[in-house]
Amino acid sequence: MTLIRADSFDYYAALSDMWPLLAGTVPTLSTTQARSGTQALRITGNNSYAGISLGSDEHATIFVGFGYYPGDAAAKTDLRFYGDNGNTIHTVLRIVSGQVQVLRGSTRIDAYAGTPIVAATWNYIECKIKLGDSPNGIAVVWVNGVEVINLATTDTKNAGTKTVIDGLEFCHTTANGASTNYIDDVYVLSGDSTAPNDRLGVVSIATLLVNGAGAVTEWTPSTGSNYQNVDDTAIGGDFANYNSAAAGSSGLVDTYTMEDLPVGTVTVHGVGVIVQARKSNSGPRGVAPLVYAGGTEYDQAAKTQPGTFLSETSQYVAAYLGLNPATGVAWTPTSVNNAEFGMVSKE
């Protein structure tokens, strides 16, 4: 599956829930400067880092799109592409004083001189990075849908041994100044043969919450109806109300109806199903996101942060689907609105 990540920063209480690689002056979530939805990533000076490992989704070619709000005209933010299990900074997309630049390690490799990024407003930036020594490396950058850099035969590999990108990181170092900048509506794709595998264009990410009972109700509610225990916004910590699957009951399914997509949605590039869960007894316990469409359950491979199995501390478990599993083709607004989403217990 080529849709690796879609993030609006709306559905979790702490950034570390889904961006576990944090360092320095730890970035935070902002409720006052969201591009869409309710929250955005706030990143500021004094060595502020927020990253993710791509894990099994590592690939030689990676596409990233994100909304970017620079706090002032001198704002500077880096997006780093890592290899060698996060130990080598190969390629850097740098935004500085309204200009975008591409670096191999610390060496600038583009010759772009424009300033297309406007301060104190939302811009949308996309890039394609193919890891490789010259002439096999590629770096292409778009700002607000317009191509501004195209390095088709360049060197994007900064030493190291692995030939794939295995991590991403937004960062703002002390040298980047004191401005406060914001990131929102992030997508990450790999460039393999399965769609979507090309830049998406300027997008927004909508967060849809549970709003009703689904067709399958096999978990045990702590109170009331199953869906009423999981229709919260981000809650963090322990759960006041919950649905549970007892030990030894692997394969139990709960599905729910969701809010509809915003009116006017035309194209759907993918869907992320995100579950907050924890275990309450010994032994390995897990949960996987699930899609229920056309009367069939589609169990999804989970991408759990920070580990494979659940712990006694709540965590988010996510699956990202570029295609509708019921049809094998792209989602439509109608197919998203008609589907149910939920989870299945694992042991």
Describe this structure in words.
The protein is mainly β and 347 residues long. 2% of the residues lie in helices and 43% in strands. The strands form five sheets. Strands 1, 3, 4, 6, 11, 12, 13 and 15 form an eight-stranded antiparallel beta sheet that branches. It has a seven-stranded antiparallel beta sheet with strand order 2-5-14-7-8-9-10, with no helix packed on it. A hairpin with a 6-residue loop joins strand 11 and strand 12. It is globular, with a radius of gyration of 20 Å. 44% of the residues are buried. The mean pLDDT is 90.
List the helices and strands and how they pair.
Layout: E1 3-7, E2 21-24, E3 28-30, E4 40-43, E5 48-53, E6 61-69, E7 76-83, E8 88-96, E9 99-104, E10 107-108, E11 123-130, E12 137-143, E13 146-154, E14 167-172, E15 181-190, E16 210-217, E17 220-221, E18 243-244, E19 253-258, E20 271-277, E21 286-293, E22 296-299, E23 303-305, E24 315-321, H1 333-338, E25 340-346
Antiparallel strand pairs: 1-15, 2-5, 3-4, 4-15, 5-14, 6-11, 6-15, 7-8, 7-14, 8-9, 9-10, 11-12, 12-13, 16-19, 17-18, 19-25, 20-24, 21-22, 21-25, 23-24
